[in-house]
Each structure stands twice: as C-alpha cells, then as structure tokens.
Design a protein that fits this description.
Elements (H helix, E strand, L loop, with lengths): L28 E5 L17 E5 L3 H7 L2 H5 L3 H9 L12 H16 L2 E6 L2 E6 L20 E5 L4 E5 L4 H17 L6 H9 E4 L5 H10 L3 H14 L6 E5 L5 E5 L16
Helix pairs in contact: 5-6
Length: 271
Amino acid sequence: MENKKVTTTKPEAKVVPQQPTTPKHKFPTETVELPSKGRLYPKDHPLASGKVEIKYMTAKEEDIITNTNYINNGTVIDKLLEALIITPGVQLDDLIMGDKNALLMSARVLGYGKDYEFKYYGENVTVDLSILKHKEIDWDLITEGVNEFTFTLPHTDTPVTFQIMTGHTEKKVDAELKGLTKINKRASAEMSTRLKHMLLSVNGDSDRSAIREFVDNYFLARDARAFREYVKKISPDVNMVFDWEGYDGSFEEREIPIKSNFFFPDAGAGV
C-alpha cells in the first residue's frame, strides 16, 4: 500500500490592527501647605504632615461646579475638593475648616489663576489669592496631635474644653439645623447649635445633655462672645482679607467675599 504524504497548512495568523492608544498623561499637581501645619491631627494621620497634594482642575471638575443639585444642596465645594485631593488616606471631612479654606484658595488659583475680581460696595476690587498669608497663631496654645483646647469663661469663671470644627462636626451641625427647621421653619439656632458641638466639657463634665443644657440656659451672651473671639484667635486659617480704602483715604482690612464668580471669573458678582 502506497503511503501518501499528508501535508498540513498552518492557518495564517490573523493580523489584528493595533488600536490607537490614548497617551497616559500624568496630571499636574500642587502641594498645599496647611495653616495648621498638621499639628491638630493625630501623629499617625496623613494630615499630620501639614501638607495635602491636589491636582489641577479639568473639564471634569467644571462639571462638578456647574452641577445644580450640588449647588442647591450646598455640597458643591466639598464635591470639588474631594475630586481634587490625591494624597492617600486624606478625607475632606477630617480637615479643620481653616485647612479646607487653604485647599479652596489653591484650587481656585490652579484652576483659573490668582486674580479674583469682584465688586465691593460698587467698587471694582482685584485680590491676588496667591499672596494670601496664613493667620499668625500662638503655637504654644496647641498641643501637637490633639484637637482640644481649654478656656475659662471670663464672666462666670467656668472652665470649658472645646474642639476646632472639622468637616465631621460641620455636617452634624448642618443635620441638626435641618431637623430643627423641619419642626419650625422660623427656627434660628445656628450659633447655639455650633457651641453645643464645639464644647467637649463644661466644669469637667463631658455629658452631652449637660453641655446642651448649659448652652441653652447658662451660657451668658458676654461669655459666648469672649469664647468665639478666643476660638477665632487660636484657629489656624488663611488670612482671607484685603485692604479696603475708605472715603477718607484710610485703609482697613475687610473679609474677602466668596461670591458666585469665585470659580467663574467671567460671571461677575457684586455686593
């Protein structure tokens, strides 16, 4: 029997065209120095470094700041900053409000430039946001790694301990105020509600119900004013002021108004 030679033909390999690939660009970032220098956070917390890295705004972040739902419910700034923070382990709500302000100023400068133009009592004002300084703080009053302070109310000689507000405590205040508004639409208890969440103890008593009763019934207005002034004095923050020339030619510091055109320089806004 004749042996037949069998030949096999390998199938031709299919040529798969190369799909064009989108080049991977490393987005530009900036390291923001925090006004607190990280001293109010636990030593093992990422914020203890006193620095947060954020990326430059892109068109995607512009979608956030134009989102009407975020604007209407007051979360647009938080949503924006959450999208910009890239430092691992950093949660926006962990930040004290002064450090959050530093991120906000830097985000605006990186996104739309340093010049912030607005109208103030009919006058055109331009502020260079890049030169804003941090408030000067007496760092001896701060125990590193601890967000807790002591103060004696001057008129009743009552010792209290308190914390500087963070995003977490701000949200608790907002939630409580919304609940009060549902009960009584005319209710206005923002100042007392903030005090209730800031205070950690009164006369050594840290019971929350005792603190609430003290604020509602025994916290004198004169003491509350002195307390707020002290909190402002020791709270790290951006010194968000500009020099305003009065009609007599003298200059005085005024707080920079954060208006609708803060992230939309072409929109225009005035007092």
